[in-house]
Amino acid sequence: MSRKIAFKTLGCRLNQFETDSLASEFHNAGYKLVDFEEKADVYVVNTCTVTNQSDKKSRNLIGQARRKPGNALVVVTGCMVNSRKEALESHNASTCFIENDRKSSILPMVEAHYRGEILHPDHMDPDVFNFKPADTTFHTRSLIKIQDGCDNYCTFCIVPFVRGRAVSRPFEKIRENIQQVLDFGFREIVLTGVNIGRYDHKGTNFESLVEKILDIPGDFRMRISSIEPDGYGDRFIELFRHPKLMPHLHICLQSGSDAVLLRMKRMYTLSEFRAIVDKIRNSHPDFNLTTDIIAGFPGETEEDFRATCEVVKDIGFSHIHTFKYSIRKGTRAACMPGQVPEKTKSERSGIIRVIGEEYKRKYRSSLIGKTQHVLVEKTREHVSRGYGELYVPIEFRSPDAKKNQIREVKITGIADGEDPVLFGTPR
Length: 427
Ligand code: SF4
Fold this sequence. Notes:
The chain has 3 domains: 120 residues, Rossmann fold, CATH 3.40.50; 223 residues, Alpha-Beta Horseshoe (pyruvate-formate lyase- activating enzyme), CATH 3.80.30; 56 residues, CATH 2.40.50. By secondary structure, it is of the alpha/beta class. The chain contains 12 helices and 20 strands. Strand 14, helix 11 and strand 15 form a beta-alpha-beta unit. The strands form 6 sheets. A 5-stranded parallel beta sheet has the order 2-1-3-4-5, with helices on both faces. Strands 16-17-18-20-19 form a 5-stranded mixed beta barrel. Bound molecules: iron/sulfur cluster (SF4).
């Protein structure tokens, strides 16, 4: 009888990509994938440590896995292992901890465990790109890892300490990976990494990489996942004229105040950020822009915060992922003066959230009457749902739509409530 394995993933798309790859590998090796709530032989928790909240959730999941009945093997991996391995190990002697650079070796380690051997993670070669393309994935789009690590050292961020220095994957390997997922039948790929705008491999920078990928033959479309507003030039923006490159970017602004951006050690000023936005909107008026905002960074005054509110309204981001600043031990911001009280941080993030909801509705409503080509993610009782070029959720009725098809849909309306889906009619 095949062994059962369950995965739980926290955090960014890179973690999700890595879990997808692992799940697919285990499936191909004969394991049965089950929900985390079910009884399994192996539980894998892919942790995140970007905020205190992420640490708390990671600990909860590890605890849940360890309390499962039976003698399940618990494998903990991801950024929290890199940042707190010693503390975690001292509380969890019977659980296996695997750092990010050996995450791709979980299958051989689990197999060795069942053969009664002990394969210590340190005996596996570290390789952050050794993930096989997932053919059994939890998603319709295939994530393509092009880069890992970061050299920016923003003062609030723990990621460079847990993912390490920036490394880029050679184009040939990326092309092979893309070809494999297209052969599996994926119609959409998403470039992902920690700081992908800083891709740099033997003279190929990010924009030339994107250009080379767009030249790969095949019927596919491509998205860029979260990106910092630095490291690329106008050529990158021009590439959005290419029909394969989808007009959506999640560009991380973090604050609308230059004083705060400087203390965060971000690599741009507000006017540089705005110049990028203007160029994008001039070349593509409907372009979908989304962002991250940190509320209550140390020293953020009322005036700084008001400036952020004005900027996000003015740019009209269609989605804002807002975090309350949280102290990460080991980062420079942790010991900065002017830590903002918790109550103020909550109020400010609440205000940003309300603005985000208002502008999300405005943006989505502005698309009524327009047409999108929707990649169908699910269909149920003749109602299909998916995302069009602009990465906005769209639902339509059709008796014959199928998962993974691309359907042309005219947008006719918008739902009520938060995160409103758009309704449409297929052509
Ligand atoms: S660019 Fe800044 S926020 Fe992004 S991963 Fe690097 S250090 Fe962290």
